[in-house]
Amino acid sequence: MNFNILITGGAGYLGSVMVPELLKLGHKVTVLDTFMFGQNSLSDVCHLDNFSVVKGDARDKSLLKSLTKDKDIVIPLAALVGAPLCNRDMIGTVTTNRDAIQTLSDVLSKEQRVLMPITNSGYGVGQDGIYCTEETPLNPISTYGKTKVEAEEIILQRENSISFRLATVFGMSSRMRLDLLVNDFTYRAVNDGFIVIFEGHFKRNYIHIRDVANAFIHGINNFETMKGEAYNVGLSDANLSKLELCEIIKKQVPNFTIMEAEIGKDPDQRNYIVSNEKIEATGFKPKFSLDIGIKVLLKGYTIINNSKFSNV
Fold first, then answer.
1. What span, in angstroms and rounded, lies between the C-alpha atoms of 234 and 166?
2. Is 84 part of any domain?
3. Cα separation of 188 and 243, whole Å?
């Protein structure tokens, strides 16, 4: 079954991968984006009749009301993402990441469906050896994490919604982000040949960007059985410390030198391991391992060689 879908922030890192996949499946997709990073990542789909694009702000209630009136599904990707960017623009973070979701919820009918990404950084600091499940109390420690957790609470008050708690995303996108951990560390391995790690024992979970897109497609296809719930989305074999991640990258970049600083503090203090069993029980299985993602990043970094692709 094909749907009429609105994606806010659809020209961003995730949307630039998701939108072409949804169009291939025959869905009608409208993207609302400010294009604040000057990206042209969706230029290759402009020739498709089932693609539309609007330049505008996801916080604009009248615009949202106009764009959502005939949509079956809304995927709100518009957000200020990452601790550094959020700390730089606190007002923009709150109004975009949380308040715009409340506005969206207000203008939608009960029948319209929402699939929304938040971050599993909402778990904050976990306990050693204990996996965070969807039942684990949320304890976000960054402004980014707090606003996304609040957005999840808003959206799950609607019956017709799904929340995906995304692990740290990695992989190539036509609107690339070099500041994400795997992408960043791999870039440093290729271009600098070394890295200095702060608090290298901190652990987190990871997921390939194409598997994130596939998770949303899975949610669309299985909406009636999945609705009303939050789901962790990550690689179950990739609950890794930063030092363990560096060693995996070093297998493909042998001259990568890894140094751990004895002093210093990571600005992102999250540290936890995550269970992804709930979404796996619905039939979803990731296809892209860390090794595959790093291999593809190494190809991409033959093309990309400057930091304008960061959110910082």
1. 7
2. yes
3. 14
